[in-house]
Structure formats: structure tokens, C-alpha cells
Amino acid sequence: SGVEFNANVVNGLLNNQLIVQISAGVGLTINIMATCLFVLPFVFFSTRSSALSGGLLLISVVLFSYLALVRLHIWFPPGPALLTILVGYIVIYQHYLRRLLRSLFKERQRSRTTLTSIEDGVIRTDYRGHIVAVNDAVQRFCTVPTTQATGRLIWEVVQLHTRHDYKPYPFKSCIEEAVPRRPKPLLLTSSEGEKILVQLAITPVPASRAELREMIVVISDISEAHQLSKQILYHETHNQLSGLPNVTLVHENLRKAIKHELQTTSESLMAIIDIEIDRFPSFRESLGNTASDLLLQEVAKQLRTFQHSGETVVGHIGGNEFILVLGNVPDRGHIMDLLTSVRDVLGESVASLNETISLTYTMGVSLFPEDSLEPEVLLRQANTALHRAKETGRGKTQLFTQNMQARAQRLFEVENLLQGAIENQHLITLYQPLVKTDTLQIVGVEALMRLRDEDGEYFSPDEFIPVAEESGLLIKLGYYQLRQACEQLVAWNNLAVSPLRLSFNLSPYQLKAADLIPTVKETLSSSGFDPNFLEFEITENLFLEEDSGSRQIMEQLRALGTELAIDDFGTGYSSMNYLTRFPFSRVKIDKSLVRDLAVKAGSSAITSAIINLVHSLNMLVIAEGVEQPFQHETLLSQGCDELQGFSFGYPMTAEEFSSYYKDCNGIASP
Ligand code: C2E
Ligand code: CA
Ligand code: CA
After folding, report:
1. Measured in angstroms, how far is the CA atom of residue 659 from the centroid of ligand 2?
2. Could you tell me which residues are beta bridge partners of residue 566?
């Protein structure tokens, strides 16, 4: 009724319960804002997060409408906004689906193209091994055309066998077990009956039920790769030139031979022979590379004739160095016969291009099991024996002995000592007196180098100088020693009755060092030693390799004021020519001639002739190695100017010489 209505209105007004409809303008604005808020994230952010924010928006609209009604008594109808968002959802979802489909389609095309373009055969089977699909490449690996393969069991159309015992590959059980497999390379028989080496990969495709499971079988032809790796292996284990096993394979083969020998429990020996062609570098120089390569190939061919049984190891381990291992040697006594037969096979000459070249070989031999059981050690021992053989001359053979081992060991020690010899005070200079023949007055000293190890043991120069020379250290050691000796002589000469001369050895190698002249000059000026009292002893055989370079250097040394002596005169091809062609002021008669004075008839005539000749050329003579009064007397009567030898003093350390000189007052006693 009207009264009730009005009462309710009044009540509503009093209790603030009346609801007002939102104005059309504000409602529209809110709807537009909601639409924008829904659409904008899709423009700027990913679909997934935008869909999420759309959902939140949907809830917010409903919440807003509810709160406006309850709290503000304003009615905002959410319908239009909700409808807009829902329609938006449908539109965007459709668009999204279409894009997804398009990309799936593209992906499928890509996979198809990949499958058809690869050379590997790819087969898809069902869980029982029936072929479902294949790519084109499968043709090579199937015994039937690909069009007929589908629906057949895979093991009926792909024939695989194991490589070593040629058993059929157990395809059926592999497919049934449905675990990924990558068996060792297998042999596949193609439709043409060709055998191809293949690599197989079987991968199950996971599925919810066993009967839905599929298998992907990939077959790759690896015969070419296998061939290539075989070739690479061959190159790595064979000498390129001769095709014989190189050092790597020789090691391996020797190891196998030893293993075999140890298993057979035979009593026989095995000879490891290190063979070197003599004078090969000079062949290379005179014949040229092509002919000398042919020569090596010829030698390799001869050696290959030993490869008759599996136990024989033949190898080419360096330029002109070969290894031959011969088994079944009954005992040590048979070794020489065996080596003679090896020499017979190698022959004395080899044809290379149009020439026949006579060859000799040097051999070093170690014996298994006498010398060692280890391949590395045996090869090293054979090499040590080879080096020893080379020292005794060309065409020689040496069996390894433990002495050689000791020598090799000592050489190794020397090499180690030489490194850092100066810093560690391993390098010592000894001084041996030089005396006037008639008065025995000490007129000088010869500086002699020694190498001393931690225990105080001395190494003689004959042992370490060749090593120092080879390692390039001799030059540095020599300069250090020259400085030390010059400083020592300056100290002595300040006190001596008359100044002492320093005789200093220069090896041909030191003489040719580029910085010799400046270093000598610098040493003389910094030590203050008078160059007139410095004499360099140069060994005679240097001049065999005649060159104007050494002559020039000698003249430069003379120009500094120092003197030059020819050392070891009478040992080399003593050409008297040298005496006049080079600027020497003194000749040192070698100790072998002095020794012969006591034992060989006619040797005093030789020393006498040398002394007269040298004097006639206005040079002085010193004789070294004087150990007995008889030698002294002979040389005195022959007019030799100076003497050196154990008779008048051994090589001494600086301190020993100081006190010796003081004690004898500068006059040696015989
Ligand atoms: P070398 O120059 O002929 O030196 C003389 C050698 O004869 C020295 O041997 C010396 O100890 C030895 N000797 C001296 N008197 C007698 C004697 O009465 N009887 C006998 N049997 N021997 C005697 P060392 O010191 O062993 O030197 C050997 C060779 O080493 C030297 O022969 C020399 O060629 C070389 N050498 C030594 N020191 C040096 C050096 O500092 N530099 C260079 N480049 N070579 C050196
Ligand atoms: Ca000397
Ligand atoms: Ca000498």
C-alpha cells in the first residue's frame, strides 16, 4: 500500500539503505577501462601471464560490483564487462590455437625434411617389431623396397650380424625389452649382398600403455669412418717413408712378444737389435733427399724379410735407425751367428736410383730376459749398446752390458750437474804448472776444468766437455772459467817473482762462438790481466775443417795482445802447413809422443825434428805429459823450451797451487 511504501522509503532514507544505479557515463568508463586492462597485457606480455591477469580482472570486476553495492549502495551491473572479457577470451584463444597448429605443422615438415635428407636409415616399429614408417635412406639397409617394408617385421627386412662370430643380431628381444640400446658396430647385408659396417641405435618412444609403445631404430653406415680411423691409426703407428712400425708400435709389438715369450716358458732368448745405417747424413748430403729416401726404403724391404713369423718385431724408429727383434735364440753363444745372418740379409750394398751404394751398419743388442723384462728398458739398452758401438767405429756390433748402463747413468748425472753448474759451484778450475826446461822455473799455469758433484767426486773434462758442447753450455762455462782464472792470475802476479802466464784451452766450438772476442776483451779489462800473459791453446784437429773464419778469429785474438798455442801437436794429421798459415807463437807436443819416448824406438827423433822445425819458424815448444826424469832429460837435450807434466806438478786447486808456489819459491823440483 502507499502508506507501507512511503514508510519503507522513509525508513530507507533514515537508515541510509537506498540503492542508486551508477550513472551511464561512469558505467561505460569502467567497462572501457576493464576491456583495456584485459587487452593490453596480451599486446605487451606473454599469452600465459596475460590469461592469468585476465582471470584476475574477471574476479576484480565482480568484487568491485559487490563492494559498490554493499558499501556504497551503488549498483554497477558487471554483465557487460564480464561479457566483453569472456568474448575476448574466446577470440584470443582461437587465435592462439591457430598459431600453435601452424607451428606444429612447420615442425612436422622440418622433421620430415630432416628424416629424408639424412643418410642414416630411420625405422619406426610398433611394440612387436612391425615396421610403421621408414625414411628414404632405409633403402640401402633393407632387403626389400621401402614401399614394401611397412607392416613387416623389422628382422625380416634388416639383416644384421655380429662382427666377430657372425651371429644374427637379436632384434626381437631388443624390441621386446624396450630399453635404449647402442650395440657395438654390426655387419649388415644389403639387398645387393654387400656387407656394410653399421652402428645401430634403438630407442623406445614412451607411451601410457605397452601396446601403444613404438621403437625408433636408426642405422648408420660407419664403414668410411672406420676406414678413416684405421688409416689414421696406421699413420700414427708407422713410419711414413718405409711403412714399417714406428717407435710406438715397436713398443707395443715388443710388449706382446714378451708377453707371449713369458707364457711359453721357453728357455730361449730374444735379441733386441738397434740398427743404424752408418754415415747416413753424408749420404743424404751427397745423394739428395729422393735417393736417400729410396735407400731407406730398400733397407726397410730387406728387414721386412724377417717378418715371417708373428713373433718377429721389425720397426723404423728414426731417420736411419731400425729395430729388429728376433726370438728363439738358444743361448748367448748363438747371438753372433744370428747377427752375422742379419748382416748377410742386409747385404753390403743397396741400389738407389741409378747407383749402387755400399753400406755398413752399426748394431746395438740387448737380450730378453737376461738384460730386462721391460720393453722400454730393453729398447733403451739396445740403444745404449748402439751408441757404445758407434764410439768404437763404423760397422761394429755391441751387446749391452751393465757397465754401459753405469756409463749411461754417469752421462745422465753429468748432464744434470752441468745445468746450474756455476750457481751451484760444481765447476772448478785446476791449475797445472808450466816450467822452463832448463831452470825449472814456473813460468805459467794451464787452466783445466773439472766438474764436481755434491759428494766431491770429480768428473774429467773428457767426460763432460762433449756433453757441455752438445747442450750449448760450454761457451758460458768457458767464459766464467776465463774470468775466474784471469782474476786468480792477477792476484798471483801481484806477489809472484815474475808474472805467470795463463794457458787457457779453447775448443773449436768455443772459438767459433760469435761473442768470443768482445767477451775476452771485456774480461781482460775488468780483471786487469795483462793480455800478453794470456795464451789460448787450440787443438790441432780443428784445422781439418779448414775455414777462413777461424783464422780471422785467431787474428783478432792476436790483435788483443794474447798469444796462441797449437795444442796436442802430433796427434791429428799434423800438417806442418798449419804452423805457418796460422798466427801461433807456441807449439805443444802431445803427451802421447812424450810417452813414446820411453817405449818406442825412433820417437825421440820425432820430438827432436818437431822442436827443430818449430824453432826454425821462430816459435817456442812446450812438451806435455812429462812423468819421468828420462823424458825430461831427452827433451832438455833436444832444446825443448818448456815442460808440463806430473813430474813438476799435478793439476791443483787455486789454494793448493798458492801454497805449492810459495813453498818451492817459484822453482819446481823434478
Ligand atoms: P789438454 O789440453 O791436452 O790438457 C792436458 C791434459 O793432460 C790434462 O788432462 C792434464 O791433467 C793431463 N796431464 C798433465 N800432465 C800429465 C802427465 O804428466 N801425464 C798424463 N798422463 N797426463 C797429464 P785433463 O785435465 O783431464 O784435460 C783433458 C782435456 O780436456 C784437455 O787436454 C783439454 O783438451 C780438455 N780441457 C780441459 N780443461 C778444459 C777447458 O777449460 N776448456 C776446454 N775447452 N777444454 C778443456
Ligand atoms: Ca791444453
Ligand atoms: Ca794437450
Report:
1. 23
2. 538, 587
